[in-house]
């Protein structure tokens, strides 16, 4: 939890309580339904929560912004972002029902009221949103092909609507089709921990 406060020192008491509750909740649920690698649960705050909040280093979602999290798994990046931006609205989508169940139960347990959930494939989601977010769920060209239909035309944030992905490793081939349009942000510019040396936020405006 300290690593969250290190980079987000102005959290409200409610937000601090919500973030603090995540470790026990995910530990308990992970014992029943594996949504995080067993050996990685000890690094929940750095590898999952703070990693998700990397998106907040490139955009501050305005009130009533709508965001869909594609392939959310147990709720990343949407649940940490929903805690940080309580006036934005997040729709969590995953094709695996038991993972969506974990995300729903965690969000309910900490009192998040700005999240909705769908056991669905993004291909079947018809609604439109200001932003699509995801964490290494599929290659960017595939994500663009499936999610283009879900991005609203009307704008309300400092950055134009689009896709925001958390990715790591070698991305040259994957990003090549969009190289003149996208922006890539190194998370090591924002976070000191070694885990973030190869991690990026990829932003593709529409």
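Q: What amino acid sequence fits the structure above?
A:
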């Amino acid at each position: 939890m300290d690593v969250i406060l290190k980079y987000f020192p102005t959290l409200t008491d409610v937000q601090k309580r919500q973030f603090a509750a995540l470790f026990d909740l995910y530990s308990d649920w992970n014992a029943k339904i594996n949504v995080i690698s067993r050996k990685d649960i000890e690094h929940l705050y750095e590898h999952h929560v703070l990693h998700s909040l990397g998106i907040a280093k490139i955009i501050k979602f305005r009130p009533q912004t709508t965001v869909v999290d594609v392939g959310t798994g147990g709720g990343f990046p949407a649940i940490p972002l929903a805690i940080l931006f309580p006036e934005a609205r997040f729709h969590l989508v995953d094709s695996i029902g038991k993972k969506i169940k974990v995300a729903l139960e965690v969000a309910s347990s900490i009192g998040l009221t700005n999240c909705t959930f769908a056991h669905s494939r993004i291909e079947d989601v018809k609604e439109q949103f200001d932003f699509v977010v995801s964490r290494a769920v599929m290659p960017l060209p595939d994500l663009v092909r499936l999610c283009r239909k879900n991005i609203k035309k009307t704008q309300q944030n400092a950055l134009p609507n689009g896709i925001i992905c958390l990715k790591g490793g070698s991305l040259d081939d994957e990003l090549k089709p969009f190289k003149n349009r996208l922006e890539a942000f190194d998370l090591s510019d924002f976070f000191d921990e070694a885990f973030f040396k190869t991690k990026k936020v990829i932003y593709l405006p529409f």
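Q: And what stands out in the fold?
A: The domain at 2-205 is CATH 3.40.50.150 (Rossmann fold).
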